[in-house]
Specification:
It comes from Anaerotignum neopropionicum. It is found in: Cytoplasm, Nucleoid. The protein is α+β, with helices and mostly antiparallel strands. Helix content is 49%, strand content 16%. The chain has a domain of 66 residues: Nucleoid-associated protein YbaB-like domain (Ybab, Chain: A, 2-Layer Sandwich), CATH 3.30.1310. The relative contact order is 0.14. The model has no long low-confidence stretch (mean pLDDT 85).
Length: 111
């Protein structure tokens, strides 16, 4: 075994391994910050409800087409809003998992 190395690590010493881990951690933190600033837009009901969400899962905008506002059918509007919001959240999680998965080389780091 090479001095300061580990079997199967090609002679990589602990200092180099730690530097690589710190570099990867910094890159992942930067990527998380970048993703947090992104916005995604989701719609439901053929565009009747639009939701804009950030990577932090904060709703920034909610727009309703006035034609969908029916006082006799509030339940349908509630369903459309829930659908758009839930899809927006799902898309943010998928965005994080895809981007972080690429960075971690598929090491199974879910966010």
């Amino acid at each position: 075994m090479a001095k300061g190395g580990f079997p199967g690590m090609g002679g990589m010493n602990m200092n180099n391994l730690m530097k690589q881990a710190q570099k990867m951690q910094k890159q992942m933190q930067e990527k998380q910050e970048e993703l947090a600033e992104r916005t995604l837009e989701m719609t439901s009901g053929g565009g009747a409800v639009k939701v804009v969400i950030t990577g932090k899962k904060e709703i920034k905008e909610l727009k309703l087409n006035p034609d969908v506002v029916d006082p006799d059918d509030v339940e349908m509007l509630e369903d459309l809003i829930m659908s758009a919001v839930n899809e927006a959240i799902r898309q943010v999680e998928e965005m994080y998992n895809n981007e972080m998965g690429r960075m971690s080389g598929g090491m199974g780091m879910g966010f």
